[in-house]
């Protein structure tokens, strides 16, 4: 073991996954903005890790060497703003200057040919002081380099420190007097003069049609080297432009369009997937699907476990990688949410393969977490039901503000319908089929939506709801020309009709002391199912009543017409003896003034104000 540590000192293991960990020297930490480099090898196998170890360790060494070079430049305070330049830096500056002049020639060729433009418009040597002019251009180049999006982040940090002092380009020649003895600056000024001589000849040749610039380039080795490099850079730029990369947002929109042609996807599902992918690509810090690699997928499978909940809301102006938490922290997103993120990512990668954008969907490199197989929700017990429908605490059916809260839980209990299916009911969705009052659960209105095609159904209304006066309530709504049964609910794009009711019910359960994690509004649906099974109602009838898609063998006949009388007879079997007395107390009282149907003015005060 000790021998292995000495051979691979940077190799470490965390949660059975191998990493390379390298400490950054203290003097370099302000440049790197971190104390150490940690890189996941994406494997749990020791022998696979040691095979990758040399390559990844060398990459980290190169990065630290780069930091040392930058730190060395900063430490040499010969430049007024604390930086020196080596031959490679000077060549990059000179190439930038050549490209500037070439672009001027391309944009103003006709004017130069006619003598309307000349070298004086782009000349750097505006005065006789060569040192000052070259230094002034150096500052302009540093400012340009800092503004480029592809500049290395570490170099950008260095330039940012320099730019803080560079509020204005110096206008005094004396600023650069102390540079005249510096070897690098003397070399820079010498080379810069040669480049400017070539640029002047290049522009003059357009007007005079001579070959002086070509001859000068053939004679001067520096110009020959720089012009060749310029041409290579231009060729690479053209080649890069030929391969247009695809933004993940563009591909996602295309994927949704294609999928909608096969099967309509709910907007809420589209929004969820888009949010998942925003998190994934924020972790990757990449925008194009073409740039995804196998290593990215290995890393994302680990880093996704460290994402804070609601990170976009809590940290709007921070990089996601800078706010990651330790794995298994209670403030991290849940395993269920992690799995949803990774599935959305896999779906996008598969579509990218189908479109021929990338050659591999990297499915083997993405590790989705295993979820607990215990049921996510459970039904209400008799004790819970008594607490919920206790007449002393249950909402007032006659109140304009509470009638929704009165009816929605009762309908859910006696129909097994989902919360949004109930809240989006319209008056015309209460119909009579063969003399039996029924719910028509559908999505005929633009604001209505269903979970899947199996959710569309016609189910009888339970006798308990009729006893409570639901049909009479609906008839009054129709008389008062109400379109929606629960007309006070506001529709939202995110939660549709069910958001406010769901949030109220969660608070109501807390108030009653029903605080189990697996008990929510959807528990009414489980409660309905449990009583249907207890009454030995067939799977086919359960599917038809509840709109289940994959419930036993019933799915094989799902969608076929089942006699409404049979459904009604079987539905009547479902009852809750514990609520028998409570339902009588909740029944309609004709002596009460009912504000729920719109029969009366909401406020007498407003009426008095209008009269006055």
Describe the structure.
The chain has 612 residues and is mostly helical. The protein has helices at residues 2-7, 29-32, 46-75, 87-107, 109-113, 130-147, 153-165, 183-208, 212-219, 221-242, 248-262, 267-284, 294-303, 311-314, 335-354, 382-388, 403-415, 419-423, 463-467, 470-479, 499-512, 523-534, 539-546, 564-571, 580-586, 604-611, and strands at 11-14, 17-23, 36-40, 430-433, 436-441, 457-460. The strands form 2 sheets. It has a 3-stranded antiparallel sheet with strand order 1-2-3, covered by helices on one side. Strands 4-5-6 form a 3-stranded antiparallel sheet. Strand 4 and strand 5 (436-441) form a beta hairpin.
Please outline the helices and strands.
Elements: H1 2-7, E1 11-14, E2 17-23, H2 29-32, E3 36-40, H3 46-75, H4 87-107, H5 109-113, H6 130-147, H7 153-165, H8 183-208, H9 212-219, H10 221-242, H11 248-262, H12 267-284, H13 294-303, H14 311-314, H15 335-354, H16 382-388, H17 403-415, H18 419-423, E4 430-433, E5 436-441, E6 457-460, H19 463-467, H20 470-479, H21 499-512, H22 523-534, H23 539-546, H24 564-571, H25 580-586, H26 604-611
């Amino acid at each position: 073991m000790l021998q292995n540590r000495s051979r691979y000192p940077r190799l470490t293991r965390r949660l059975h996954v191998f990493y390379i960990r390298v400490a950054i020297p203290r003097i370099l930490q302000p440049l790197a903005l971190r104390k150490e480099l940690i890189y996941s090898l994406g494997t749990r196998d020791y022998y696979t890790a040691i095979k990758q170890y040399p390559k990844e360790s060398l990459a980290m060494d190169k990065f630290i060497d780069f930091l040392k070079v930058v730190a060395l430049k900063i430490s040499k305070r010969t430049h007024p703003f604390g930086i020196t330049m080596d031959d490679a830096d000077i060549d990059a500056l000179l190439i930038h200057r050549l490209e500037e002049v070439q672009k001027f020639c391309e944009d103003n060729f006709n004017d130069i040919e006619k003598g309307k433009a000349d070298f004086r418009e782009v000349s750097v040597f505006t005065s006789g002081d060569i040192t000052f002019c070259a230094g002034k251009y150096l500052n302009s180049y540093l400012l340009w380099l800092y503004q480029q999006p592809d500049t290395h982040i570490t170099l950008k940090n260095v330039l940012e420190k320099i730019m803080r002092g560079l509020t204005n380009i110096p206008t005094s020649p004396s600023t650069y007097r102390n540079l005249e003895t510096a070897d690098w600056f003397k070399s820079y000024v010498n080379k810069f003069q040669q480049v400017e001589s070539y640029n002047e000849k290049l522009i003059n040749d357009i007007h005079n049609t001579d070959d002086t610039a070509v001859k000068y380039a053939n004679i001067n080795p520096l110009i020959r080297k720089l012009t060749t490099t310029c041409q290579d850079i231009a060729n690479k730029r053209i080649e890069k432009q030929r391969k247009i990369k695809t933004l993940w947002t563009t591909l996602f929109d295309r994927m949704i369009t294609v999928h909608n042609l096969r099967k309509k996807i709910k907007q809420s599902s589209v929004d969820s997937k888009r949010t998942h992918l925003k998190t994934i690509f924020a972790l990757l810090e990449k925008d194009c699907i073409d740039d995804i690699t196998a290593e990215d997928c290995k890393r994302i499978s680990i880093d996704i476990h460290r994402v804070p909940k609601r990170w976009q809301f809590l940290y709007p102006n921070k990089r996601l990688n800078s706010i990651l938490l330790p794995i298994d922290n209670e403030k991290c997103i849940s395993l269920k949410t992690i799995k949803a993120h990774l599935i959305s990512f896999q779906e996008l990668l598969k579509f990218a393969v189908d479109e021929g954008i990338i050659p591999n969907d990297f499915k083997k490199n993405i590790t989705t977490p295993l979820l607990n197989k215990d049921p996510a929700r459970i039904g209400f017990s008799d004790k819970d039901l008594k607490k919920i429908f206790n007449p002393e605490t249950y909402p007032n059916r006659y109140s304009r503000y509470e009638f929704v809260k009165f009816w929605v839980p009762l309908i859910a209990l006696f129909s097994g319908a989902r919360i949004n299916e109930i809240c989006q009911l319209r008056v015309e969705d209460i119909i009579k089929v063969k003399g039996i009052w029924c719910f028509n659960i559908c999505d005929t209105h633009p604001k209505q939506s269903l979970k899947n095609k199996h959710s569309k159904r016609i189910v009888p209304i339970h006798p308990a709801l009729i006893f409570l006066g639901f049909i009479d309530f609906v008839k009054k709504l129709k008389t008062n020309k109400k379109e929606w049964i629960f007309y006070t609910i506001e529709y939202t794009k995110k939660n549709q009709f069910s958001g406010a009711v769901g949030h109220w019910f969660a608070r109501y359960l807390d108030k009653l002391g029903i605080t189990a994690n697996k008990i929510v509004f959807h528990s009414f649906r489980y409660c309905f199912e449990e009583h249907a099974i207890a009454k030995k109602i067939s799977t086919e009838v359960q599917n038809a009543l509840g709109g289940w898609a994959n419930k036993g063998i019933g799915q094989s006949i799902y969608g076929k017409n089942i006699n409404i009388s049979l459904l009604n007879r079987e539905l009547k079997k479902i009852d809750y003896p514990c609520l028998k007395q409570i339902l009588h107390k909740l029944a309609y009282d004709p002596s009460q003034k009912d504000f729920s149907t719109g029969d009366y003015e909401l406020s007498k005060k407003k009426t008095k104000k209008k009269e006055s």
